[in-house]
Amino acid sequence: MTYVMSDLHGMYDRFIAMLEKIDFSDSDELFIIGDIIDRGERPVDILEYVMDKPNITVLLGNHEVMARDFLRRLTAEITDENTASFDNDFLVELAIYKHNGGIPTINRLIALPPDKQQRVLDFIDSLYAYEAIDIGVSTFVLVHAGLGNFRKDKKISEYSLYELLELRPDYERQYFDDDSVYIVSGHTPTKLISGKWEIYHSHNNIVIDCGAAFGGRLACLRLEDMAEFYV
């Protein structure tokens, strides 16, 4: 079976509880479409768990992109050269990252030995921004936020990270003429769309961020039959 989650945001215990709830096994496949890190207390624990699982694919979220450069510079050996790079602009951006939930990720990462820090950072660097998978007669485009600034003649490879990971799309618009193509995204908590902490379906858009880090629920969608699971 093929499962999709999003916006775990450091909620390690809920993540493990969800894997148990869906009885996730080596014969299943899981896609996590961004924002594993930040906000919750155990973001690095989730990263270390998924890094070693060949049947778990992680895609970039805006939080992973926001963290990449900061984490490398913060974990680098302190020298006169790299300390000079901590200019005012960097410190302002770092403050913004912390305000957006980055403190647990920073604290957990710098507590690791240097070799494990490097492995986690290399893993984040390896992540892709989107994936398209076929399940039966349907195609699912998996992307953190959606297809921002959509144009019918625009190839997905032409989208910027900002358009894929941050811009919020129009969920009441069907983006593809083919009724068998769906966009599965997170990023926007569903309560802001429908008023409910549950997976939102509209016009072949499926939004699965049910606000685990904001008092809502962690959601998981099984693509073969659209079964929904919540923790």
TrEMBL record:
Keywords, sorted A to Z: Hydrolase
Molecular function in Gene Ontology: bis(5'-nucleosyl)-tetraphosphatase (symmetrical) activity; protein serine/threonine phosphatase activity
Domain of life: Bacteria
UniProt EC number: 3.1.3.16
BP terms from Gene Ontology: RNA decapping
Domain Calcineurin-like phosphoesterase as annotated: residue spans: 3-190
Endoplasmic reticulum found in the keyword field: no
Gene Ontology CC terms, in alphabetical order: cytoplasm
Entry-linked PANTHER family: METALLOPHOSPHOESTERASE (PTHR42850), ZINC-DEPENDENT ENDOPOLYPHOSPHATASE (PTHR42850:SF4)
Name the UniProt record assigns to this protein: Calcineurin-like phosphoesterase
Organism, scientific name: [Eubacterium] siraeum V10Sc8a
